[in-house]
Write the structure tokens for this entry.
Amino acid sequence: MTVAPHSPLVLDSSFARELPEMAVPWQAEAAPDPRLLVLDEPLAAELGLDAAWLRSPDGVALLTGSGVPAGATPVAMAYAGHQFGGYSPRLGDGRALLLGELTDPAGRVHDLHLKGSGRTPFARGGDGLAAVGPMLREYVVSAAMAALGIPTTRSLAVVATGRTVRRETPLPGAVLARLAGSHLRVGSFQYAAASGDVALLRRLADVAIARHHPAAADAEQPYLALYEAVVTAQAQLVARWMQVGFVHGVLNTDNVTISGETIDYGPCAFLDAYDPATVYSSIDTGGRYAFGNQPVVTEWNLARLAEALLPLFADDQEAAVALAVPALERFRPQYGAAMIAGWAAKLGLPDGLDDAVAAQLVEDLLALLQADHVDLTSFCRALAGAGRGDVEGVRNLFLDLAGFDAWLASWRASGPDADAMDRVNPVYIPRNHLVEEALTAATDGDLDPLHRLLAVLADPFTPRPGLERYAAPAPVDFGAYRTFCGT
């Protein structure tokens, strides 16, 4: 690693300074032949960064971790976690580094973090590297999620390293530079709790409060208020996933953020046909993280966070549990309310409609979508057309016409607003076949399909002539889809 004394970027090292027990100073492996593949210039501008400098040799050195600003202390972050239900006491950044924290012109603090930057003490036998395809997948999907208005980490850039990565076949290597409100996660608290150092756990909670949920500091019980805020943030986040058909794929406790941002786009994908049992991840053989399981798994993960925080809730464990249980029990009603409110907007339901009526419309609709394996995104846009009188466009998506017609009559009787529906139902999502097409081409050196896809996804709600293939479900011959974590 070299120091870039004249870098225009200022990075703080507050995590390393405030929580040294959870930060191992480390440096990225040098990239033998770095080449910038993609840079989010609007995001760079939002952060107050000069895109031209980021494209320069010094900027690319920063984006690979080989050249950092003076005073910065890159670290591998320590955390624990339940992975597919099994507890691992020491996970951590096995192939990643936190370069530091930057403050944007609006005063917001962001982590600048690398993936694929080489082995760290947490690598657990892995090579610490990443391939072009998986890093570009995170870039594409996180950009799409941001455009959809869903809380997410952001991808700033992907740089090809010039190094070959050995997986099932040799692949070109890459490093992803991403931004997050922070990388604090449920697993961070599990790690601190497992250390038995209550002072460390308290310092970690204080950092989380200051960074993400400052109102908790003024509560009568700040740490319980922090927990309640995380429960609320996660209930709202997962409801947003369910409304657009996003499948995270590996919803371990180390992939659940304290901020309520979506993180770690590994074997993720979006639904075509609506089916709660959908699993895309090649490693999720038991379906633990199937689309429809995401709410209950998130609740389970939040229970693990409560367990870690118990020493801060009360000195007596029984008393602490008595506080934690009702706080966790808030998740289901909050998730349910967020789901109904989100679907009410997607269906254009008027304000003032009885909640029970809205809930029944949503429940009946999801059953119809599941029974006939209807494409979720296409349906929601076609339904707005039905609100304007074009009923056949949406009816053609169903086999059970009698069942759908009965539902449609009830929905139309509510007086839906088709224009409002178009503002919240996307035309374009990262269709799995289009993502694969772009990643395959990019791996072979052709970035044009990637750039075209990114341009479409940047404005997901506005239909544009000539982009019909980006709005269409996968062709029949696309087959069963499987994704991989890329490790």
About this structure: Residues 186-338 form one domain. The two ends are 24 Å apart (CA to CA). Residues 103 and 109 are 4 Å apart (CA to CA). The chain has a mean pLDDT of 95.
